[in-house]
Amino acid sequence: MRRRQLHGSGAWIDLSLVTEAAGPESPPGPRRSRSRTVPLSVYLASVLVAVIVGGVVAAGVTLGILHLQGRNLQHVDLAGGVTVSESSAAISVAQNAQPAVVSILTGKSNQPMGSGFLVSSDGYVVTNVGVVANAQQLTVVLPNGYARHDAQLVGYDCGTGVALVKINGVSGLPTLGLGDSSGLSLGQDLVVVGGPLTPEGSVSMAMVSALHRTMVVNAGLGDGQLSDLILLDAPIAAGNQGGPLLDLTGQVVGVTMDGTSDGRSVAFALAASDLTQVVQQIEQTGTVVVASLGAQTQEVSSADAALNGGVPGARIVSVSPGGPLAQAGLKPGDVITQIDDVRLDDAHPLVQVLRSQFSPDQRVTVTYWRAGTTGQVELTLTGEQPSCP
Questions:
Q1: In this structure, how many other beta carbons lie within 10 angstroms of the beta carbon of residue 360?
Q2: How far apart are the first and last CA of the chain?
Q3: Which of 38, 67, 159, 301 could bridge across to 386 with cysteines, CB 3.0–4.6 Å?
Q4: pLDDT for 359-389, tens place per residue?
């Protein structure tokens, strides 16, 4: 394999040989001079280099190489004949996101407990509940100049794992918005960005290893069940957790988090699509009130149902006396499979469905499974403030 360096760019191009199928032998001819004929592969490589250099100069693009965790990154052909590596896209995403990503200190120590990202120019910061759990005080460090600001916890939701912090006395700050995580795919490469004080490095890459997972996780507030999680193949640096997880278009698809599950360390992210309405409610009211069935439930994944029998949905663990499910005659062991026309599955767990699509005092039809048979009941949802473990 031969490599050629683009003049002034620091980037190397691999010139791979092109092998042509051999044709029939030509009859011997008169002896020719020993002048060399340029091979087709060299000609094509030269044309490719000329096109790339011309495209780079015309577009004013500087290509960089990002070596993150030894990942073999693909190349993407863009309009104009410029070939840009996936690592270049990751560099751009990280550079654009970093001005809105902060470090969060929770005590007298200067060691960051985690990160967060600004979702409003006047200082609202999204992070996860593990970062702010049992905080003695809150200080947020901004990336430009490491300016420190006092902050306060506005509210949190242990059902989704999200928390909202407010920086005091700021304005005009850069922001990131929560995006749509529903289009993620297994094996997709994502960018993890942490705050400016992260000692291990504030930018890394992680691959999606699983989607729509439900786990009992200890992340600083005791064991609690979280659902619709994005599992990652690489650990999250301690100072980065709570920061944004971005796809290569720069969209925030998750909030990073780490913890232990069944005694093992796990790295994952809270799905952004599940958090938007919760964050808006916390910002507007300072608390979270969600529609409730009046019961403790446990998510049953498709894999669990296939392995153990039954159906996916939300298994009732206990019912509140006088609550909607108790009044409707449902009992522990029943599995809720649908509310109105919304079917519960791995991508639509009960916790997120109640928060995003229903409201207290709403009249609904609940479909449930009991010992191989299906039934339906009508009931009126109540409202509750979700508690932490």
A1: 14
A2: 58
A3: 159
A4: 999 999 999 999 999 999 999 999 998 877 7
Architecture of domain 87-286: Beta Barrel (2.40)
Superfamily for the 289-384 domain: PDZ domain (2.30.42.10)
Beta partners for residue 264, in sequence order? 261
| Euclidean distance between CA atoms 225 and 158, whole angstroms | 9
* Cβ atoms of residues 165 and 314 within 8 Å: no
> What is the spatial distance between Cα 41 and Cα 4, in angstroms, rounded to a whole number?
14
Token duo for residue 179: 């995006």
How far apart, in whole angstroms, are the C-alpha atoms of residue 267 and residue 240? 11
| Structure token digits, residue 111 | 């060691």
pLDDT tens digits for range 343-360? 999 999 999 999 989 999
So where are the chain's domains? 87-286, 289-384
Q: Which residue is it, tokens 């522990």?
A: 332
Residue 70 has a pLDDT of: 36
- Environment class of residue 137 by beta-carbon count within 10 Å: exposed (0-12), middle (13-18) or buried (19+)? exposed
